[in-house]
Amino acid sequence: MNKPKVVVRPPDSRGLREVTMGGETVGSAWSLRELRKVLRRLGHPEDVDVEDRSLIMWLGGDSGTWPARTGRRRWTVALMTTGLLGSMALLVAVGMPDAIGALTFAGRVTGFLFAFAGVVQGVAAVAALDYWGKRKLKFSGAVILLGAFIALVTNGLLLFMWLQEREYTPYVLTYLPLWCWSLWALQLLIREKAWRGVPYPKQFAAGVTATTLLATFNLAYSALYQPTSAPVLFDLSVKFGTPHMDAGRPLIHLPVTFRAQNSGKVPAYITSDGYGIYGVSAEYASDGSGLLEWRRRIDAKSDGSSVGRYIKDPIRETISAAPFYGPGKWLEPGERYTQERVIQVPTSAKYDVIEAYLTMTLMRKDRGRIDEEFSTPHHSWRPKEKQFFCSPLECDDHIIHRGRVRHNNNMINVTRQPRYVLSYYGWNGAGGEFRSYILSHKPREVLRFKKEAAEEDETERKRYGVALAETMTAIPFSQLLNAGGQDSTR
């Protein structure tokens, strides 16, 4: 029985010629050499005469018509797969930290979408080998088109965010060329109508658009709406306890309780904190002229004590001061921290009032994460601290905490230069001073930190949700003497 005639069909847009026999596709060939391989599988001898019209029918050209541009096709495949794999690596690198470690559900969803989009591009890179090959997979063109569209949207978003600040980051060397690559890939795929073979192209386009809108919504929700809709709420309190007279010395022991509680729904870092207890004394103004000091005290950059009609020239002396909870620690919603102290005040002191202050600088934990390095204190008086060491002849004793802060939305991390949080607690012999700053560079020279801190951009504090919380209380010194005297008679 004679075999059906082999039909070699005209070359397609890639130069590939389909081979059929009896109306069924039995293979395809880029060249005469590949055609002979197909014929051998069909049982023809290796040296079969391809010009024998009784065996082979040529349509759209003869045995010398092989227009496949092998070099161009291979370069297209190489460039397409390189771009898809590069975009895949970038999206996975951007999305995985949020997918695994974001503090909000919306942030994790956004991270997962980015990572999943990267996986889709990895599948598209495999599909590119088939699409510019024998096209054995029906939807390989549509998958590549989806991958190129994802690359255009995501890399365009990263590029847009980078253009807002235009700060150099190594990642800009990836999403800038990848965005340009995605433009080339899309115009090539559209020109070749790569979506052909998709049964419902309109539904396919609608699904892609819906996924893009969902990702955009989750990004906006996690980065903008949620952090502002849930404010940081902290309750600070300072309370004096019952004073006691020392049995053998002219001292009053005054208990003081400091408490901080996170009463909101957002965890918060403490970037700097401290308490101070002061004795305030003032001259008696019998003529009621104390209110006239207001302008003079403002011009003299006074400590902020209020003016009074019958007092003037108030003096505040530090009795006790120290850090409170400590930089780098944090309080979860509902968590509290309490510290009890007992201070000693001589009965002979000429104070009018005893004041106690508690101050904390807070940073939202759902906006950024501070590296563990920030919890390590660096003391200026220890030469082994090297860059943190500062001679007492040049500066006051101080303790510095420094660490990198990373935004919880990883897209901001890859489109901005690193930010650093710095906490300073200094002691000048008469009192303590504490500050915290968020800087766009890593401070290295301690002697210049105040100058560098003065250049702090207020935008950075808003971006990471930095806020100040403070409270104070006061008690007349005469009340301590009376209570202490009563206690000593018991």
Helix and strand pattern:
EEEHEHHHHHEEEEHEEEEEEEHEEHHEH
How far do the termini sit from each other?
Answer: 127 Å
Main pleated sheet:
5 strands, antiparallel
Report the β-strand fraction as a percent range.
25-35%
Mean pLDDT metric: 84
The structure class reads alpha+beta
Helicity, as a percent range: 25-40%
* Spatial shape: rod-shaped
Total strand segments:
18
Number of helices: 11
Low-confidence stretches: none
The gyration radius over C-alpha positions equals: 37 Å
How many domain units? 4
Detailed description of the structure:
The chain has 490 residues and is an alpha+beta fold. The protein has four domains: 6-58, no CATH class; 71-229, no CATH class; 241-354 and 474-490, no CATH class; 368-464, no CATH class. It has eleven helices and 18 strands. Strands 8, 9, 10, 12 and 18 form a five-stranded antiparallel sheet that branches. The mean pLDDT is 84.
